[in-house]
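User:
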Amino acid sequence: MVDSRAGGGAPTVLRVVLGRRLQHLRENCGLSYEEAGRALDVTHATVRRMEKAEVGLKVLYVEKLLQTYGVTDQSEVDAFLSLARQANQPGWWHRYRDVLPEWFSAFVSLESESHVIRAYEPHYVPGLLQTEGYARAVLRAGMPHVPEEEIRRQVSLRLERQAVLERDEPPMLWVVMDETVLRRSLGGPEVMRDQIDHLMAAASHPQIRLQIMPFSVGPHPAMYGPFHIFRFPIEELPDVACAESLVGAVYFDHREDVTTFLEALDRMCAQAAPVSRTEAILSAMRKEI
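Assistant: Predicted structure:
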């Protein structure tokens, strides 16, 4: 489990992957943190932090570790070092560092590299499916005192995140939203009509599944708050669950923790209206606005 408020820099997904690969190489050699640290003339804590993606990967350190771990194939070494250089490059979202909290930088990195994104949202339309007008209304409601320029930058970031759904191989996005989300008016009737139209269009996308949890269901397993689950097409990365709060987010990657989120979401998907009913539900709600 990682508390995003702890600081230390949000790692890119690639940095996490390379850290895990270094860990596997070290363990396969039977070396301890201390022994690997002596090879670099650094403390064992530095090696641990590299493996945990808590620090950047210095290319000279990585090269020395590969030698220490017996990686002799030069093409393999060159490929690893090339990935290390890439991992140290800031993500596209770095352009928004003036308005991007550290905890959310990690979120955007996970979102950008996932091939399956599942989510439960009891309050708002998820950011990947928001219109510009709706996004502005949500952000202004959550940050009533910030300057308009910051809101504009936040909206721009949110819309740029949505490019992940337009990739040649976009992730599968599977969202369960409470009926509350659509009953809560944000930005006025026109904004809400545009947002529902956008959701209806999104629901027809082959890579998007959208389900509505009606009031009539009553209590359900995930009434504690919103969360996301990210799955990656990379062997070294486990599923990651993210639970948000007013001041940040907590990321879970231990199997038993993530399983708890997955089981709750699976039960909710069984309780919610089926995907085939989503367009009809949205259309009916739009007529009420």
